[in-house]
Amino acid sequence: MANETGKKLERSEFLKTLGAAGLAGAAALVGANAFADMEKKGKYIFTITNGGNDPNRAILALLMAKLVAEKRWGSVHVWLTLEGAELASRTKAEKIRSPIYHKYGNAFELMNHIRSDGGWFGVCPPCAEYCGATGGEKHDWIEFAGGDWLMKNIADAWVLWM
Fold first, then answer.
1. Which CATH class for the 42-161 domain?
2. Backbone angles phi, psi at 14, to 5 degrees
């Protein structure tokens, strides 16, 4: 890689240049207009792909959903898939605790906060079956919702995939 004078850039110089360009692009993406659009969006989908396998990610996603629900920024939809389907289980959700975010409670407690603020929960049917969250083991307020639900709803929503 060469600079404007034709001199070869050192790796560190190249990375600095790339980093500056990346920061400028990120700043443009999250500028005032992006935040103004956020207020207009009104629909948030939190796709949770982790449960007991990575409780930090699971709890962080729930904390973000809780924040949006509490602030009333829009409708909150939490979709549980892959190992995240463990959160749909009556016996597993209470056991999912984050060592980092432990003071905020377990997954079940956070899910109840989100529900009390109007949040909706869905779970991928094959993932629920894989994680044992079917029949009486699944929380009755969590709906079965497959990939078709996600694809239908993802286009007009802010999406967090964790």
1. alpha beta
2. -60, -45
